[in-house]
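G., the chain you wanted modeled:
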Amino acid sequence: MKEKEAAEAAVQKERQLLIEATKFTLRKFLKDDYDCYTQRGWCSVQEKEEVDALYRLYHEGFNGNGTGTRYYEAIIALPTNDHDSI
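Predicted structure as tokens:
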């Protein structure tokens, strides 16, 4: 019985590590997008849609908030480029 409990605990620990690693990676993608688009000064509609999909995974799928949310909100607030109106 103790072996089974230890194995289950190990699986739970591994699962939690994978969740945290995925959450970290998604937040890092948001930061990289934030750095790119804020430096450029604009973000296309298509890029904003991609950022939105990424943020939904981060926020809804992994309960991410805080810093990732601030990156997301700043990106979404950026103006779009002239090509978006075509």
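The mean pLDDT is 91.

Shout if anything looks off.
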